[in-house]
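Think of the structure tokens as a kind of shorthand, similar to the way a musician reads notation: each symbol stands for something richer, in this case the local conformation of the backbone. In the example below we present two proteins back to back. Begin with the first one, reading the sequence and then the tokens, and try to describe in your own words what changes along the chain.
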Amino acid sequence: MSTGADEAFTIDPATVREWKRYPEYKDSGVEWLGEVPVGWSKQKLGWVADLIVPQRDKPPIFGGNIPWIRIEDFKGKYISDSKSGQRVSPETIKNMNLKVHPAGTVLCSCSCNMGITAIVERPLISNQTFIGIFPRKNISSEFLYYLMGGISDQLQALGSGAIQQYLSRENFYNLKLAIPPLPEQHTIAAFLDRETARIDALIEKKRRFIELLEEKRQALISHAVTKGLDPDAEMKDSGVEWIGEVPVGWEIKKIHRIVKRVINKNDDGSERPMLSLSSTKGIVYKIYEDESLIRPHDECLTYQIVKPNQLVVNPMWIINSSIGVSKLTGIVSPAYRVYDINKSLLPEYLHLLVKSPLYISQYWRYIRGLKTYDRSVREIDFYQIECLIPLYDEQKMIVEYIQSNTSQYDSLVIKTNQQIEKLQEFRTALISAAVTGKIDVRGEEEAA
């Protein structure tokens, strides 16, 4: 999406708007800012805000009433507490000389993903992933929140080149910005509150639509692999409580009767793709610095070779459906388990069966009672999982039926995700345009 100064900014077709330009501009003298509205002042961030740099050391103990904030705690515009419940006491703050971010501080990430921001609602402490930006009297927290988020690309570019991207206090202090008068800051922030809320509501609606599509998709798969395709088929008791009735002619076999463990070490010196298990996509290439290949060396000789149509299980995360039949050739972690599948079973059918919601719910049976730090499903327990086995020809029909009838759901999910991506791009562009003066939002209260 272009964000050229002379072009209109538009959103999803359902909410099309056009935004006007300021009547008069001047050269900011800053390359990335370009022209800014007349009346806006060029400032360094350190001239309009106090910068609070957290201590490097993490408190050795937690206990108190002042939240300790990490990147995982960020969600939304405001932040007031730690999701993990980690807090520190005044004594720890004093002893370690920790820096407290007062209410009104804008926390901004200064490492890796630059420009993640939130406004502090109550005094708290952060780790060194963030810098605290406390506005002085001529800049508002609300405007500063959108400003720092709106220039995240510039922050990212400023931090590039290092082994681990990090912006120092000096980088932030010398950051050149164009600041509008305080009343105009309030207007811009209020405008962005309204517009981003509208966009966020539309994104949430589309995400919920995807969830409903996935629910319908999974229901279709579950019914097909556990009840078959013939609604008038004669049924029988499976003898397994959680499975219930199944079509006559279907067999119930424990999984150890249809798969066989294999261990093929990657010790022949060949270069092979590194594979991983995705809970949603199954077996996928694992990307290392944009490369899917991993070269064999002393540390990966124990990695296992996986071939197409082999069942792969991550015993640590099987509860999250990290199980599936591979369509790829490559190597996987030695912690994974790899199995050959009996020729009487169609690999595609087994993949759909073990990833169906009914089966995912059953994996929990084998970890109940385990300690929280030991969530690995033992192979002896995994072997006890009962599998529904139709005749081979019926397996083929079930797979073809599922592939044919889920394609429409898959297409809708792809299309909706594309719409969400465009909305997110527009949201980012709109914030950037408003806080850098590329669009004039004064008077939009009346238009809203």
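Once you have a description of the first chain, move to the second and do the same.
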Amino acid sequence: MSDLHGAYAKHEDPNTVGITFPEHMNLLQKAFPFATGEFSGVMRELMLAGKIISSKVRRAGLVHEMGLTGRVNVQGEQVQFLDEFSNETIVRMLGTSGHVCVMSSEENADPIPVAPGYPCGKYVVTIDPLDGSTNIDVNVSTGTIFSVHERVTASGPGTLEDVLQPGSTQVAAGYIIYGSSTMMVYAARDCGVYGFTLDPTIGEFLLSHPNIKTPEHSTVYSANEGNTSSWSPEDRELVRALRDGEGPGGTPLTARYVGSLVSDFHRNLLRGGIYFYPATQAKPNGKLRLLSECNPLAFVAEQAGGMATNGAERILDIVPKELHQRVPLYIGSRAEVQYVVDAFRRR
């Protein structure tokens, strides 16, 4: 009896390593009323899409499904085959789930309605279907970024109003990273940050990183220093100061930059680091998308104890005005991001 009781008690903890996502959600639901079956359904569809995309990414080189489609997306960027496949997969799974009322994607110019004939749910999902896809042919990690809001309209098909919500109102957000293993990291409001690793032998995501907390101080900085000449003098000085040990930690930071946002963010989340993508002369409003990239990662960072800013304003407080709005981003360990904020205040 004692062994049975111990096993039961073990599974009363949503942080138990090795439990499945449904087990984890059932335990969280006892304490957090937002964790309804409908929310769990959204997450299950995202994870199923992630399994399909992971399989496709791992086989892409063998079946020659890398490269460009010849199409240009709303951002003016060349579309990769796997961008298109990932986008269509996620939209199909969510659009027929009955759990969402509208979606938006980095790959689509307008909000995406649910599939015809399917019911509209209460959630709004925004995605970057395959971040870092240009790096697939050199075997660099890629990822799917997602953001979940509750709708603000009363009922029926969702609208642009449902999509254009500040990041502070997100119910959950996260990413699925396709690297040496496939891992989903998600944060839910007031619940913390959790990492689930896909066990390919059973086809299930199992809890591998409970209650993730990012270190308060950075050990690395991540920035595309090829753009240094087009940064502002203040941004160049910030990076120089951190590199030379003049930041809050008092020790020099090491440069680590993959060029895949999900990969750089994931490393910094676990080990401590700050990621920069400031404004440039060519992109004075920044390059990264507020809704599909910055908001979800800022939500994860804050839930893990970090920070995210555009330099002048907390990322999650920015009220979006456009579906594909871009902003500068400084994100990661709290001490170094606060150092950036203080430097902007002195300007």
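Compare your description with these statements about the second chain. The CA atoms of residues 72 and 78 lie 5 Å apart.
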